[in-house]
Design goal:
Layout: H1 2-29, H2 34-53, H3 56-106, H4 110-124
Length: 125
């Protein structure tokens, strides 16, 4: 029992130090995403505590669980960024097409413009 308490007390300063180091490294590597850094820090802290209290198998289990959560959040973040880029490109294409159409209509002779306007009015009904 005293060995368990001694290990917990010795881990008190190690866990925050290692977790903070891991968080800083991860935040720097992943563009300042502190959500991922927090997951990495908590994973490392849990692994260190599990190793000190329960052994290597528990530490590896904590690392595996943290890595799975980290991978899920990282993939979710990348997917959201990819979707946002696709939506922006689509909006740009539509704006370009709209501008091109407006320019074409401006350059039409008056008779052609009136004919197209009548067709658009009929299509809207």
């Amino acid at each position: 029992m005293s060995a368990l308490i001694a290990a917990a007390l010795a881990s008190v300063w190690i866990i925050p130090a290692v977790s903070g180091l891991a968080a800083g490294i991860v935040a720097g590597c992943f563009g300042g995403d502190w959500g991922l850094a927090l997951i990495a820090a908590l994973t490392v802290g849990a692994a260190v505590l599990a190793y000190r209290l329960l052994g290597l198998k528990a530490a590896l289990a904590a690392l595996a669980a943290g890595a799975a959560l980290f991978a899920y959040r990282f993939g979710e973040r990348k997917g959201a960024a990819s979707q946002s880029a696709k939506e922006k490109a689509d909006a740009d294409r539509r704006a370009t097409a709209r501008e091109r159409t407006i320019d074409e209509v401006r350059n039409l002779p008056d008779a052609e413009l009136r004919r197209r306007a009548r067709r658009w009015v009929r299509d809207d009904r």
